[in-house]
Design brief:
single chain; 78 residues; mainly alpha; 71% helix; 0% strand
Length: 78
């Protein structure tokens, strides 16, 4: 399970798939500024909130990977 210290790696995994941090924040029901404060180390998430973020992260990655693994190159280009 990712830890708040893994935020840079999580961002890389999302960026690799062209998934925005804003999408993760919306899915997690947190403000983008909250993510930024976590990233800077100014505050730490509660376990409950972090669990929601991790869940949303995995959902977004899974959805993206499923969508792109089942499409032909022509479908993916559309």
């Amino acid at each position: 399970m990712p830890h708040p210290n893994d935020i840079p790696e999580m961002e890389k995994a999302l960026a690799k798939r062209s998934i925005t941090i804003a999408s993760l924040c919306r899915r997690s029901d947190i403000a983008a500024t909250t993510w930024t404060r976590w990233k800077s180390g100014k505050v730490s998430p509660t376990v409950r909130v972090w669990d929601a973020v991790v869940s949303a992260f995995h959902e977004l990655i899974k959805e993206h990977d499923q969508d792109h693994s089942t499409k032909t190159p022509e479908e993916a280009a559309q």
